[in-house]
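Title: [Solved] Bifunctional deaminase-reductase domain protein 3D structure

Original question kept below for reference.
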Amino acid sequence: MRNLVYYIALSIDGKIAGPDDEVEFYPSSEDYMNWMNTEFPDVLPSHFRAQLGLSDTPNPNFDTIVMGRRTYDPGWKNGIPSPYAHLRQYVFSRSLESKHPDVEIVSTDPVAKVRELKREDSDKDIYLAGGGEFAGQLLGEIDKLVIKYYPVVAGAGRDGFGSTFNPTLFDLTEVKTFDGGNAVLYYDKKK
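Solution (posted by the thread starter after getting help):
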């Protein structure tokens, strides 16, 4: 069975974005960006991969992405209806209609669909792109966390795991630090 991995950027105070979905306040260094592009090129939207010369780079981690509508909407509104063309794309929404043949809109229970995807025979994991409320709904299915902490306090904004109280234990398995204060923490769900 493959894993559902929540690969997420967080401010020190646990925000994935500002109140109006701002993310440009996240500081990073060249060291950190090089690591991200080398270790996780599969999480970059296809148009960014092309700009960075990574279009032909194999996907080392994931072959499937799941996301909520809030995560999908910005690309679609900017003329990018298939933001992760290098992955199988599932967008969970009860009201959205398909905008591209390579993007499957799922209006049924996200937990059931994710369980189905996890049972597939693949050596690649499933990338949970978010957002926070959607990740909160899937918290029971998340097997691994890759949390990219940015050295900034947002103060207000979108929570990384939604607003439902649901304590879930994870074991810290690895920590990477970078110039400029960025840190990446890897967690596995406690068994």
